DNA sequence: ATTTAGCAATCGAGAAAATAGAGTGCTAGG
DNA sequence: CCTAGCACTCTATTTTCTCGATTGCTAAAT
C-alpha cells in the first residue's frame, strides 16, 4: 500500500514524464513538494522496489514502469473536463444530421487524432442482427452486370460481373431464387446457406452457375466482413519513442496487418486501457478503447499512442464520443 | 556530346550507385574498363563539369546528378526482359477473369510494390463517357433509405439517408423525376444539371426537398470524384535516402494529401519519367508514370521511389501492365 | 595527344579521450 | 523521520586522433 506522499510523487512523475518525455529527477519533485530532494529520493527508491518506477541507467531520473502507469490510471488519474474548443469541434460533427454513423465515427476520430496527435482505429464489427434485405442487379451492357446487395441495417455492397454466355434471363432467375430463399438471413449465416442450400438449386436451374455463384459469394463475403479504418497513422511519427526507422516500420506494418482487427476488437463496454505488454498490438504502445453499440451498428473505437500517453484526456474524449453516438 | 567511353563510365556509375547507394570511385570503374584509375578520374572530372556527376565532398566518389540520371534514362538505359517469376506473379492477376479492372490494377501494383520496394499510386480519373445509368432506392426501415446510383460503365455509389417526415411516396416521386430527367447525363455534368434543372422541379413537387437534394448531391459527387489509391506506402521506409524521420513525415504527408491527384495525374500515353525536381511530388523522389485508358476506364498509374531508382525495371513493369490492361 | 604511375592533399567515419553536468545512494547529524 | 553533504556513476557532448578511401595534379611513358 502506498502512502499519500508516495502516491503524489508517483503522480507527479507520471504527469511530468508524459509532458516532457525526460526521466524525472528528485530535484524537480522536491520543489513542488515541501521536502528535501533526499527525502524524495528515498521515496523514489521505495517506488522503484515496488516496481512502479524505473531508471534508464544508474544515475538517471526515474521513468514510470508499465506497472507504474497501471497504478496511475487505476488510482491517481483525475478526469478533467474537456476543453471548450475540443467539444465545439466534435459537436460540428455530431450535429450534422446528414452524416451516417460511420461518417460520424470517422470524422470525430479524425478530429481526435488531430488534436491529440495519436492514432485512432475504428472497427465496424457489424451487428448480428444484420439481415439480408434485398439483392438487385443492374445490367450495364450486354456483357456486364452490377450485383447490389442491401441489408436490413442499410449496408450496401456491390460487384460487377462479366457474363460469358450467361443470359440476362438466367441471371434474373438466379436473383429471384436467391431472393426468395435467403432474404432475411443474418449476414453471418449467408455464406453457409449460399453454399449448401442455394448452390444445389441454382446448379439445377441455371447453366454456367459457377460464375454467378462466385460473384454472389464475393458480394456476401464483402458485406459480412468487418471493416477497419486507421486514422492519423502519421501521428506515430510525432512521438520521440518512435523516432527509429525500424520501430516505425514495425508499428506501421502492425497497423496495416489484418490481424489488427482481432488485436483491437473489444467487447467490454467501459473505456479500457491496455498499457504496453497488456495490449496485443505492440509492447511499446498503449491502446485505449471501448466497444460501441447502437441499434444499427456495433464495433470498437480505439486510440493508440505511446505508453507515455495523455491518459485522462484520451479517456475523456473516447467517453464523450461513445456517449454521443450511443445517444 | 559525350564520347563512347564517357557514356559507359556514366552508365556504370549510375548502375553501381543504384545498386549500392554509395558514391562510386574511380578504382571500381577502372577495373571494369581497360584503363587506369587516373584516366577514369580525368573523365569523371569532365562529366562533373558537364553537370552529370556530383561529389558529396571534396574527396568522395561520384554520385549521379539529376541531369546525370536524365542522360542515363534518355540515352543509356537498356530495357531488359522481365524475369519469369515477376511475369508469372502478374499473370495470375491478369488471368483471373473474376476481377474487375480496378481490382486488377490494385493487385498488380501491389505485386510491383512488393517486388520492387517502391510505392505505387493508382489514379482513377473516370472516363468522360461515363453516364448515369440508373438511380434506385431501397427502404431499409420507415426512417432510413439507401440511394444507389449506377453508371453506364458499372460504377456504383450509394448513401443512406434519414427521412425526417418525408414519405416514401415523395421519395419515389423524386427518384422518378430524377431518373426521367438525367439518366444518360455524363457524370461530370450531373452536379450542374442537378442544381439548375432538377432542384427547381423537385422543389415544386416534393416537400422537404432539401434533404433529398443534398443526399443525391452527395452520391453524385462521390461517383464523379476521382479516386486515389496509394499502395506500398511503407516501402518508403526501406530506402536509405528516407531514413530521417522528418523526411519520412514530409513524404508521407505528401502521399496523403489530396493534391497528390493533381501532382500525379498524367495524360501522356508513354511511360514518363520525372526525376527529382522534375516531378511535383517531392524533389527527392522519382516518379515513373503512365496514363491508361480502356473502353471503361481511364487514369494514371505511377511508381514512386528514390531518385536512385531501378529505372529500367520499373519502366518495363509499368509498360507490361499498361499493355496488359489496355489489351 | 593520350594514358598512366606516383604522390601529396582532403575529408569523412569512427575510435578514443576528455569534460561537464545531472542525478543517485549513502552516511551522519538534526 | 528528515535532510545536508559528498563521493560516485553514468550520459551526453565535445575534442582529438587515426585510418583509409579518393581525389587532383604533375611528370613520365606510350
Overview of this structure, please?
- Two copies of one chain form a homodimer.
- Chain A has 327 residues and is of the alpha+beta class.
- Chain A folds into three domains: 4-76, Arc Repressor Mutant, subunit A (Orthogonal Bundle), CATH 1.10.10; 84-118 and 227-326, GAF domain (Beta-Lactamase, 2-Layer Sandwich); 132-224, 2-Layer Sandwich (Enolase-like, domain 1), CATH 3.30.390.
- Chain A is built from twelve helices and ten strands.
- Chain A has helices at residues 4-20, 26-32, 37-49, 66-76, 84-94, 101-116, 168-182, 187-205, 209-224, 245-256, 260-264, 311-326, and strands spanning 53-55, 62-64, 119-124, 132-139, 144-151, 156-162, 227-231, 272-275, 285-293, 298-306.
- A five-stranded antiparallel sheet of chain A has the order 7-3-10-9-8.
- Chain A starts with a helix and ends with a helix.
- The mean pLDDT of chain A is 93.
- Chain A binds chain B through residues 97-98, 100, 133-134, 136, 138, 140, 144, 146, 148, 150, 152-154, 156, 158-162, 164, 211, 214-215, 218, 234, 237-238, 243, 245, 248-249, 252-253, 256, and chain B through 97-98, 100, 133-134, 136, 138, 140, 144, 146, 148, 150, 152-154, 156, 158-162, 164, 211, 214-215, 218, 234, 237-238, 243, 245, 248-249, 252-253, 256.
- The first copy, chain A, binds a DNA duplex (30 and 30 nucleotides) through residues 23, 25-27, 35-39, 41-42, 44-45, 55-61.
